[in-house]
Amino acid sequence: MTAMIELVAVHKSFGHLEVLKGIDLRVAHKEVVVVIGPSGSGKSTMLRCINGLEPIQKGKVIIEGEDLHGPHTDPNKIRQRIGMVFQSFNLFPHKDALHNVMMAPLKVQKKPKEEVEEIARDLLAKVGLADKMEAFPDELSGGQQQRVAIARALAMKPDMMLFDEVTSALDPELVAEVLGVMQDLARSGMTMVVVTHEMGFAREVGSRLIFMDGGVVVEEGDPREMIVNPKEPRTQKFLSMVL
Amino acid sequence: MNAFFNGEIFKDSLWLLVKTLPTVFEVLILGLVCAWAWGLVLSLVRLSRFRVLRFLAAAYIDFFRGLPLLLLFIFVYYGLATAGLRLPPLASGVLGLALCYGAYAAEIFRAGIQAIHKGQMEAARSLGMTQGQAMRYVILPQALKLVVPPLTNELIAMVKDTSLMSVIAFPELLFRAKEKMGVVANATPLTVAALLYLVFTIPLIRVAAQMEVKRRKKKKKGGAGPPDGLTPEAEMELLSADIAGQLPKGGEMH
After folding, report:
1. Which residue in A45, A141, A204, B182 has the most C-beta neighbors within 10 A?
2. Cβ A145–B226 below 8 Å, yes or no?
């Protein structure tokens, strides 16, 4: 079976600074891959390369068998199948929650308004915001905004979801509500790549754990196994600091 | 005192000058629409990913920001006529305003667009929007709100700069006032013209100031909000584009 996401020897530099030094990664259908690592290790950059938000210098990004940088590929089409949630929420401040969720299906997929509104109301209810449909982003807490952002990404009915440190900007008491939504999503069979510092989430929800440092994948394995028994010294050192 | 404020002449000139207001509004509204539309197009070209186009837009903007509007009016009306292209005063006025104020508006729009947090563009693109869709549905609606205060300042300057069209025989306030002044050998018509300018500019100035106060308050209150606020650099950019818009663009009157 073709992988949902496949990275082959991906190299990425910002000027002279090489951030990704040959990343290989395969994510299978319904897999929840959790990526951890110190800041500057390239984990967020890797995530952004998966949907082409960052161009790469070398290597291949293959999404469901399609080369993202292929000559006949429309990256916009591929991005429609990859939902992404950001650390800083990035909700559209000029639209209320409902219309944040409705915008892409309406404008990109050009679905009829009634259908889109139903999808959006369903999704917002699912992330526990049935009573906040008409609220604007600046009237919502961080946790609520992030849940709207998840609903917004899901509204495109993506085949996979990318999460870029989505709880890092949240007050501690708001983290759980967002992780809860992500956990439900994983249980429903969504393919996910999650960059996070939440080791609890990695242990409970992750089907695979990846430790990155210095632009390479240092170690990967079963999260429950790897967290208690890391093999590489760098992984050991990192885990001893975050646990 | 009688030289500047003669009751009889005042009444006369007031009627005369009020009658010219529709003409002034005509050139102003046409000029404004053209200048802002042209400015928006220029700003988008200025920010496009095509280097040559970007350069051309930047060159245009620098060029017309550097020219006195008075010279532009004279060139469009008299200069082009020497080459056989005779534009009526109204068309010359609109063209002059659009050429010059388009360049200023372009800088304001550019600053407004660049002031939108880059996460907005990323979020839009991650949803599968094209660059154009993201611009239209996400960036511009926010940027346009941001540029209302600087554009209001532009409008104030534009109202005043219609007076420069008196040199191209466009029958606006100053032109008529000067005419009348010659006939009555008294400066009262000028006083009337000045009052009429102020009737329109002072409310605009107040509105612009009010918006500024509101924006400052909102900024103070914000903090926990989403990262759609202006970065300090973006704010400086908007401000400088704004200040540029307030500088007098015309030369001195003779």
Report:
1. A45
2. yes
User: Which 3-state string (H, E, C) describes chain A?
Assistant: CCCCEEEEEEEEEECCEEEEEEEEEEECCCCEEEEECCCCCCHHHHHHHHCCCCCCCEEEEEECCEECCCCCCCHHHHHCCEEEECCCCCCCCCCCHHHHHHHHHHHCCCCCHHHHHHHHHHHHHHCCCHHHCCCCHHHCCHHHHHHHHHHHHHCCCCCEEEEECCCCCCCHHHHHHHHHHHHHHHHCCCEEEEECCCHHHHHHHCCEEEEEECCEEEEEECHHHHHHCCCCHHHHHHHHHHC
Residue A197, C-beta contacts closer than 8 angstroms, at least 6 positions apart: A36, A165, A167, A168, A242
Residues in B closer than 8 angstroms to A149, CB to CB, are 123
Q: Is the pLDDT of residue B235 over 80?
A: no
- Sheet with A32-36, edge to edge strand ranges: A82-85, A160-164, A191-195, A32-36, A208-213, A216-221
Report pLDDT for B232: 55
Q: pLDDT tens-digit profile of A75-109?
A: 999 999 999 999 999 999 999 999 999 999 999 99
What pLDDT digit, counting tens, does each position of B36-92 carry? 999 999 999 999 989 999 999 999 999 999 999 999 999 999 999 999 999 999 999
pLDDT for B224 equals 37
Task: Compute the distance between CA of residue B176 and CA of residue B163 in angstroms, rounded to an integer.
Answer: 10
> Tokens for A123?
């999704």
What is each CA distance from B233 to A77, A106, A236, B229, in whole angstroms?
34, 34, 42, 11
Interface contact A223, partner B, CB < 8 A: no
- Search chain A and give the residue with CA nearest B117: A90
Exposed/middle/buried for residue A11 (C-beta within 10 Å: 0-12, 13-18, 19+): middle
Task: Give the closest-approach CA distance of A87 to chain B in angstroms.
Answer: 10
